[in-house]
Amino acid sequence: MKELFRIIDRSRLEPPIQEKTKKILERIASVESKIHRKPVEEIHFHEIGGLDSLVDIVGAVWGVEQLQIEKVYVSPVNVGSGLVKCEHGILPVPAPATLALMEGKPIYSSGIERELLTPTGAALLAFLGSEFGSLPRMRIEKVGYGAGKDDLAQPNLLRLMIGRLEDLSENERVMIIETNIDDMNPQFYEYVMDKLLGMGALEVFLTPLLMKKNRPATLLTILSSPDHLSPIIDFLMKETTTIGVRWREETRCCAARQVISLETKYGPLRFKLASWKGEPINLSPEYEDCKKLALTQNVPLKQIYEEAKKVALLFQKRS
């Protein structure tokens, strides 16, 4: 992993691309470490050590950034079946690392005796995927296909559909999952929140509270779709110090959201445009873009925000 990190650090990739690529490699190393019962530092990337695999990972991360994709929805994945030959010998399909990386995600096999999902592909889907399941209601704008070299009994294609979610102002059902925790290292919460969001949670937040005998504690609340209830409860019971979890189903409505780019005197900025029943209701600048402009233009961040507010106001008046 250190060797791959050195290659990434010496590249001319933007820092966010480098960091996301490293996180994907770290995720693969983590599952390989558990499978082989060795420290992460001793793990050899036999299957993804080649330059082509590194380019696959970097290219996918870079592509999502360049296309300004807000969310990636992944359909249930056909993993294949049979056996595959690798550096460790003959392994069943899906490979152990693939299964570990797809834990909590919907997979299936149509009976094709071929490895249809590799550890590299699984790591990309697990990291980039915002939600797994059925196709959301969206207006398609572009469609792309990537063809594999093998001749299979079904189309050997990866299909990417880019579009905008339809107005989500209508009601939807969500699960509210909660637990009170008073005995966990507070440093663990960052890890817990990242894992929950990676599993498909819609929102994760913490609330300080006082329990009986005035013990300070934290209320961990997760919003998720009903499909993610079981894996989230399983995660909370295994990886936090809670001994009980409660949940309920509620109804929520959301404004439709899209990202637009507007020119400012300091450079282009992305804004999140929220609409309710077809009418714009809020336009806010993306923090990361404002931060980047502040650093590159050597301008105070609050000054960038003031300029962003002026541009947003002009846009809303024109609209």
What does this structure look like?
The structure is a single chain. The chain has about 325 residues and is an alpha+beta fold. It folds into 3 domains: about 1-165, no CATH class; about 170-255, Transcriptional regulatory protein pf0864 domain like (Alpha-Beta Plaits, 2-Layer Sandwich), CATH 3.30.70.1380; about 255-319, Ubiquitin-like (UB roll) (Roll), CATH 3.10.20. Helix content is about 35%, strand content about 30%. It has 9 helices and 15 strands. It has helices spanning about 1-10, 15-35, 50-65, 95-100, 120-130, 190-200, 230-240, 285-295, 300-319; strands at about 75, 75-80, 85, 90, 105-110, 130, 140-145, 155-165, 170-180, 205-210, 215-225, 245-255, 255-265, 265-275, 280-285. Strands 10-11-9-12 form a 4-stranded antiparallel β-sheet. A 3-stranded antiparallel β-sheet has the order 13-14-15, with helices on both faces. Strands 1-6 form a two-stranded parallel ribbon. A hairpin with a 2-residue loop joins strand 13 and strand 14. The longest helix is centred in the first third of the chain and has 22 residues, at about 15-35. The chain is globular. About 20% of the residues are buried. The mean pLDDT is about 90.
